[in-house]
Amino acid sequence: QKEVEQNSGPLSVPEGAIASLNCTYSDRGSQSFFWYRQYSGKSPELIMSIYSNGDKEDGRFTAQLNKASQYVSLLIRDSQPSDSATYLCAVPLRGPNQGGKLIFGQGTELSVKP
Amino acid sequence: EAGVAQSPRYKIIEKRQSVAFWCNPISGHATLYWYQQILGQGPKLLIQFQNNGVVDDSQLPKDRFSAERLKGVDSTLKIQPAKLEDSAVYLCASSLVLGYEQYFGPGTRLTVT
């Protein structure tokens, strides 16, 4: 089992819809979770961090964490064509000598159609 | 606040040549990371520094890759000799605290022919 898994997509949604991006992780004890957005040809940009069970909202973005199910998701409300990008889920490895190394999923490509 | 700086942005070399990349992290960030990202994949950590000490280099191909961060600020990543499979984007990131939010530079796109 991969440590961090995402559906690679592409996920296509119409403009104005809610886009739902999902991520599962294997380490039950993980404490922090990050969502990055990566436009084609650009570097990853941190858009959300979440540390506690439940929802965290930031503008049109909501991160949802369920540690019991080892599942973290990112919802994008009122999707815009400018949201079209690859979304990467990242989880730090725990344990000695890991140094909080981030493990990335393979990313989900989102396409928002006008 | 200035972000992570990297240079060059693009580099094309022939196999068996050498190449070096430079990174300047966000001011005050003690932790610096080098990642390799192959098209269609998530970034893969190559090496991680805390100040000028190596925290993790388990994924660094040490027969050809080397990295240093001599004064705990700037870092260089070198490949010698390069192989075709080294064609990728090399990303530098930094974080204030080990294991928390990491911020990426623009990356260097390397093409090995």
How would you characterize this protein structure?
Chain A is mainly beta and 114 residues long. Chain A has no helices and 11 strands. In chain A, the strands form 2 sheets. In chain A, strands 2, 4, 5, 9, 10 and 11 form a 6-stranded mixed β-sheet that branches. In chain A, strand 7 (61-66) and strand 8 form a beta hairpin. The model of chain A has no long low-confidence stretch (mean pLDDT 92). In chain B, the strands form 2 sheets. In chain B, strands 2, 4, 5, 6, 9, 10 and 11 form a 7-stranded mixed β-sheet that branches.
Quick take:
Chain A has strands at 4-6, 11-14, 19-25, 33-38, 45-50, 54-58, 61-66, 71-76, 85-92, 102-104, 108-113. With 114 residues, chain A is mostly beta strands.
Portion in strands of chain A: over 45%
The overall pLDDT of chain B, averaged over residues, is: 94
Largest interface pair: A-B, 23 and 24 residues
Shape of chain B: globular
* Radius of gyration over C-alpha positions of chain B, nearest whole angstrom: 13 Å
Note the gap between the termini of chain B.
37 Å
How many helical elements of chain B?
0
Classify the secondary structure makeup of chain A into a structural class. Answer: mainly beta
Strand content of chain B: over 45%
**Helix fraction of chain A?**
under 10%
Element-level helix/strand string of chain B:
EEEEEEEEEEE
Shape of chain A: globular
Task: Write down the overall mean pLDDT of chain A.
Answer: 92
**Total of helices of chain A:** 0
**Head-to-tail CA distance between termini of chain A:** 37 Å
Q: How many beta-strand elements of chain A?
A: 11
* Run of helices and strands of chain A: EEEEEEEEEEE
> How many individual β-strands of chain B?
11
